[in-house]
Amino acid sequence: MQTPGYTGWDRTRWLPEPSKSTYRSDFERDRARVLHSSALRRLGAKTQVVAPDADDFARTRLTHSLEVAQIGRELGRSLGCDPDVVDTACLSHDLGHPPFGHNGEKALDAVAEDCGGFEGNAQTLRLLARLEQKKSFEDGTSVGLNLTRASLDAACKYPWLREDAPLKPDGKRSKKFGVYEDDLPVFEWFRHGVHGTRTSMEAQVMDLADDISYSVHDVEDGVVNNAFQLRWLARGEHRQRVVETTRGWYLPTTDPAEIEAALDRLEATDQWVSQFDGSRRALAAMKDMTSQLIGRFCTAAFDATREVFGNEPLTRHNADVVVPAETQIEIAAMKGIAAAYVMTSEQRQPLYAKQREVLTELVDLLWSTGEQFLEPMFAFDWEQAPDDDARRRVVIDQVASLTDSTALEWHHTLVQGKSFTRVWI
């Protein structure tokens, strides 16, 4: 069964494939390809907020992606999107993240400056359409997982090149972009016929599901791991800290009073957990709070979107997700709470500096030794690369593919020249 609102054009693959059994749709096959990819598995050992081995409770990039997919799939289906297209986009949205999360992204962007920079979303497209090997053209050129046009477009959160990134309110160009120069052929293929830089309906659902997920789950992780208590927000200096962090990170042009009002509304909900003591009752209450907030944000977006675009299936480029301004501020305020107490913690700054140092030194070492220490597939890419920029990109691809633990292991052995022993029980 094919979901209404999608055509044969949407189901086309860059490399045509023979017809297969009809018990699965083309979009179900897309989801399965991402689900079975090695890039998705590696997210289980990549940082979401804290290191994967730092705590048994905290989320990894993989568990975060699974939660985003659950939220996005249901919201997308309620709006008429094919649930598997949205699911595929959600499962894919963080595939390009390197070791150490956004901090690692900053490090790789700096060392890749001369070959086009590094951006996790552009790396995601590179993985889907090149690095995750499943299909190839006759000349051996990889087409990655060879997903359908609709699924690739849905996974493209920032459909523009680095130099075409939009300007932020302060006049500076955004660092977010979704495609590298040498991945333009597949980008132009799946974006053919799309006007400008608008994102598809499915990509917008994925983006909102991501925002909703980490806004509530990062707060849940922070509270359960004793980084902060929500009752702290009742104290002036803490409230000001959250408001200022929310403005600085997410809402630079928003009146602080509107952020204050959003915090007031959230605190006024029956499910708000001001005090957490680690008991079973408290854990249940925290889970209920996250569930209710997800429902609150999704319902607000669903109602607003249907009010504008009606009750027909909303797919591809025939509509946009509408999120009420108050809801946007509430989501940002939740993200601001986690950012204020976890991401900007002074205790974590030396760790962040060390992580950037590890990746920078690892790139330098691999660049200086050529294909010697690269994994076989990246060594092949190095040999095929036509110039230094392409070879530099191969090294970046290699380092970005590593998990947090393997990046540390490679640095420990290759850069520091020390032995590395894993402890097995």
Task: List its traits.
mainly alpha; 17 helices; 0% strand; globular; Hypothetical protein af1432
Q: How would you summarize what this structure contains?
A:
Helices cover about 55% and strands about 0% of the residues.
Can you walk me through this structure?
- This protein is mainly α.
- The protein folds into three domains: 26-190, Hypothetical protein af1432, CATH 1.10.3210.10; 201-348, no CATH class; 349-415, no CATH class.
- Helices cover 56% and strands 0% of the residues.
- It is built from 17 helices and no strands.
- It comes from Micrococcus lylae.
- Pfam families: HD, HD_assoc.
Number of domains: 3
Roughly how much helix do the residues carry, as a percent range? 55-70%
CATH homologous superfamily (4th level) name of the largest domain:
Hypothetical protein af1432
CATH class of the largest domain: Mainly Alpha
User: Strand tally, please?
Assistant: 0
Uncertain spans, ≥5 residues at pLDDT below 50? none
The number of helical elements comes to: 17
Output mean pLDDT.
Answer: 93
Q: What general outline do the C-alpha atoms trace?
A: globular
The CATH topology of the largest domain: Hypothetical protein af1432
Structural class computed from helices and strand pairing: mainly alpha
Q: Strand-and-helix sequence, N→C?
A: HHHHHHHHHHHHHHHHH
Q: What would you say the CATH architecture of the largest domain is?
A: Orthogonal Bundle
Reported for the largest beta sheet, the result is: none
User: β content, as a range?
Assistant: under 5%
Described by its quaternary structure, the protein is single chain
Radius of gyration: 22 Å
Distance between the termini: 48 Å
Pfam families: HD (PF01966), HD_assoc (PF13286)
Protein name: Deoxyguanosinetriphosphate triphosphohydrolase
Keywords: Hydrolase
Domain HD: 61-215
